[in-house]
């Protein structure tokens, strides 16, 4: 199975779901599950093949010759790990949305469209195609939140959409600048990256392109769309947004902005590092004072994505590898946290308020969710054995190599992360109950789709944490690409 | 043979007039809308068939009428857009005398067809005015106060712009003693630059700016879009704008290629390039900001027209063949999207009585296919893939950059950057309409479906929607022929 199946299954699934007659609406979730399973299996199979040094799949056709645009999809190890992440989060997202009642066909069609667009970005080797896939995601995101969301949904949806489109305007500017300056003949990413742009141009073009991508990665101070959007979104969309869509921004920053303008990157590195550290600490501090469980997770995403940006800013092999590992780790963990808070708990208690959750005594009434959330929290705090640890330690090593004076700030961030994670876990799931409290009413037990989604994500996080070698090998395979030569070869 | 399509249109228009008179005399009632539309549509289809037999040739530099590859493509485009506009059924009692109305539509189309195929200063003016005079009448045809205001405003602004255009053309003639664009170019390259030519050029650009609704010459547009019958608006918004761009491309790239100057940052050189850059910037900011505040979807589309003219002028100011090709591609795509959006708006208006965004509420339940089509049109205008509007904008911006960036110079980045950001802002107002259609629930008892649409109306919605999707996925289908036609017709690389 080639990685093409990831994108094909998603788009064909979306089309199929849309074409279902109204009375068969219930079938749509099965189609969505099959489509995302096919995607996940295809990604996993391709990962295995790549580990055995199989030939990389490559699809290259002329598309718009007048502009030098080709339909070029390919997957190296780095793309494959992210495709696998997308597939896993997609499967879990469908499982967590098993009981969507309202307009399920449109819901799953938009869901699968997002998956397809994300897969497309990870595989595009042409800047135009990458941008197309990047923008395809915008409208389904808006509709998923505005139609199926909660808590101020229209505001959250509009804010998120305007941030996304604003960020893509910056990306567009950066890409056409590179296109123009490289002679205006081709949008091929390798061609754009092999051109040497004058340092003066790189100095102003790099921040435009980088910030464009970094907005979607939740870089402080452009992060405010993330918490509002994630809270307003329905569970599956929150999982996708935090789990994979934010990774689009990080992926673009890493695999487009850096290779195109390496000297600009060199110049702006300290600024990126500073913003990343502020994001880590600020996100964690804000999460510490939230009342809504989903907002806690939303701000924790900002903090965690700060590690990705920090790894990129380190600019060393360890740093970039750590950034990708953190992307994967955060994708899994955020998906899990949002799934449990937004679906498993909220569906039964109809509140996400930390104080109100106390009444439900979730540890006793919903032990499965409590165990899942505890493990997810442990992973999120970066405890050894989970994926978060591997990622954060790699980023920290990368940082030691480039700017050691920033490491204490990272340590501070990790401490605060521990604080807010434990606070939320404690308040929501393990409240201190007085004898005078009434006994909580029993809640419906976990359903099998919920259990399987939770166990799937936890298993993956543990797998990465306990045996990171295959993942690291795949990422290193991607980092060996010529795109990164100019960055990693620098002293 | 060269004028066969135009001749077919004129004959059909005369037949239509005669039929209207005959029916009135015989049955003492006016010709029905449906038969008038049928006759007009048949005429346009015949004209399109006739176009296949028109011999294509490169401009010899002498003739009034030029049927070069560019003219042929755009005559076809104008006929398609014109056909779609004609098919858009008018609301009840919107058009009191269908015979006259549709014959005027055909006359306007004749003018537009002629305009696409000339490189001659005088003939250009005559053809433009033939189209414009018909359009003024079409705008005021429904005899409501709004329509009269629209028509009067359109006429007054149009008259002033015609004066500018004519005066400018005569100054250019006075400078060059040539009556064709290529003659003007020869005179420009032969002699020193002259104030006369510059003044003439400015006046022509002002005149064309009115026609294209570039800010600050756009004041007629919102009233016309709101007050005129939907059918007339569809013609003004789509076909006439496409033709305006063709004229601009021919006039500037053949006649004044050497007087372009530059709009590059830090390297600004006087010439039409920098003037168009300013017009583009003003149009984009003005159109997009004012569109944010509209409570009528038709007015919103008018301001979006102003903004889109801005994007087109961005590419034009790069003064290159490839960016002109991108502009011509985009204007077709824009025309299709606006026409379709107007068709959906007309249907909603008929159902709900007005065109405020709120009357679109719950469209997805009342008429899912129309809602999906509206999604296609508005997101294409906003530039979201995989629709043609996205490819068009991307082509505009990338070709504008490719033609002007060298080394570390920022070139047109300031203008392209402004365009990209303005285009991002535009998504807000398009989404505010789509939000009503997809997110909000309709009024009480919102389960009912829209008034059934006639097959013609379905065509005016479905054809642009399908074309936008197809051209979005396979833009080379149209971009390549346009690029080839441009190099063949204008002798540019």
Within the largest sheet of chain A, what's the order of strands?
A: 1-2
Major sheet of chain A, described briefly?
2 strands, antiparallel
- Report the total helices of chain A: 22
Q: Indicate the mean pLDDT of chain B.
A: 88
Number of domains in the coordinates of chain B?
Answer: 2
H and E order of chain A: HHEEHHHHHHHHHHHHHHHHHHHH
Helix count from the secondary structure assignment of chain B: 19
Residue-averaged pLDDT of chain A = 88
Classify the secondary structure makeup of chain B into a structural class.
mainly alpha
Order of helices and strands of chain B: HHHHHHHHHHHHHHHHHHH
What characteristic shape of chain B results from the CA principal axes?
globular
Amount of helix of chain B: over 70%
Q: Give the radius of gyration of chain A.
A: 21 Å
Rg of chain B to the nearest angstrom? Answer: 22 Å
What's the number of extended β-strand segments of chain A?
2
Q: Could you state the oligomeric state of the chains shown?
A: heterodimer
Helix content range of chain A: over 70%
Question: What's the N-to-C terminus distance of chain A?
Answer: 40 Å
**What portion of the residues of chain A fall into strands of 2 or more residues?**
under 5%
The shape of chain A is: globular
Describe, in plain words, how this protein is organized in 3D.
Chain A has 491 residues and is an all-alpha fold. Chain A has helices spanning 4-19, 27-51, 77-96, 104-123, 127-136, 138-148, 153-181, 189-194, 199-216, 225-232, 235-260, 262-288, 293-314, 317-349, 354-357, 362-365, 367-381, 387-402, 407-429, 448-466, 469-479, 485-488; strands spanning 58-64, 69-74. In chain A, helix 1 (4-19) packs antiparallel against helix 2 (27-51) and helix 13 packs antiparallel against helix 14. Chain B has 19 helices and no strands. In chain B, helix 12 (297-316) packs parallel to helix 16 (388-404) and helix 13 packs antiparallel against helix 16 (388-404). Chain B has helices spanning 4-27, 33-51, 69-87, 98-116, 121-139, 145-176, 181-190, 195-212, 220-227, 230-255, 272-291, 297-316, 321-352, 363-366, 368-382, 388-404, 413-438, 455-473, 476-490. The model of chain B has no long low-confidence stretch (mean pLDDT 88). Chain A binds chain B through residues 62-67, 128, 131-133, 135-136, 138-139, 142-143, 146-147, 154, 158, 161-162, 165-166, 168-170, 172-173, 175-177, 179-181, 183-184, 187, 197-201, 204, 208, and chain B through 322, 325, 375, 379, 382, 384-386, 390-391, 394-395, 397-408, 410-411, 413, 416-417, 420-421, 423-424, 427-428, 431, 435, 438-439, 475-476, 479-480, 483.
